[in-house]
TrEMBL record:
Pfam families: PMSR (PF01625). This is Peptide methionine sulfoxide reductase MsrA. Has an important function as a repair enzyme for proteins that have been inactivated by oxidation. Catalyzes the reversible oxidation-reduction of methionine sulfoxide in proteins to methionine. It catalyses: L-methionyl-[protein] + [thioredoxin]-disulfide + H2O = L-methionyl-(S)-S-oxide-[protein] + [thioredoxin]-dithiol; [thioredoxin]-disulfide + L-methionine + H2O = L-methionine (S)-S-oxide + [thioredoxin]-dithiol. It is an enzyme of class 1 (oxidoreductase). The gene is msrA. Keywords: Oxidoreductase. It comes from the Bacteria.
């Protein structure tokens, strides 16, 4: 299979289970991997990251074709999956490993992410300041296999978590039904 152009995008948006599906269903997205980034420990485990001893965020890394699904659109979709004003985590999940961040892989991604954040701040959609950090990409460590594609493997548990955490209602309130 010819995958054409490939680029990476890396986002922390709280629980990585909830961050895979929205990207996985888009044209030009080749693969979405749940994992850990931003910290100091090599090859961290889920327990270590959730235990807040590694400095890592739960994150997703997306392999995509920028000619089919441009980075600007990926960032726009990212904003629509999170509460960008929450500096303490996301929805039910609290702590540094669940904070939001855009990890840029080059200067163009940094500029596009900063511009997108500025536009979101100016939009008036949120009454609180945007807390999402924009950081240089660091080594990304894929999470354990049972975390990969969680929404496909455990659809009932995924949907219950997506709804029960408050994420689903927040997205609907701020972005509408189809996000």
């Amino acid at each position: 299979m010819n995958k054409g152009n490939q680029a990476l995008a890396t986002f922390a948006g709280g629980c990585f289970w909830c961050m895979v599906k929205p990207f996985d269903e888009q044209p030009g997205i080749y693969h979405v991997v749940s994992g850990y980034t931003g910290g100091t420990k090599e090859n961290p485990t889920y327990e270590e990251v959730c235990g807040e001893v590694t400095g890592h965020y739960e994150a997703v890394q997306i392999i995509f074709d920028p000619e089919v699904f441009p980075y600007e659109e990926i960032v726009k979709l990212y904003w629509q999956q999170i509460d960008p004003t929450d500096p303490g985590g996301q929805f039910y999940d609290r702590g540094p490993s669940y904070q939001t961040a855009i990890f840029y892989h080059d200067e163009q991604q940094r500029q596009l992410a900063e511009e997108s954040k500025r536009k979101l701040e100016e939009s008036g959609l949120f009454s609180k300041p945007i807390a999402t950090k924009i950081l240089p990409a660091k080594t990304f460590y894929p999470a354990e296999i049972y975390h990969q594609g969680y929404y496909k493997k455990n659809p009932e548990r995924y949907q219950a978590y997506h709804k029960g955490s408050g994420r689903e209602a927040f997205i609907r309130q701020h972005w509408g039904e189809n996000k």
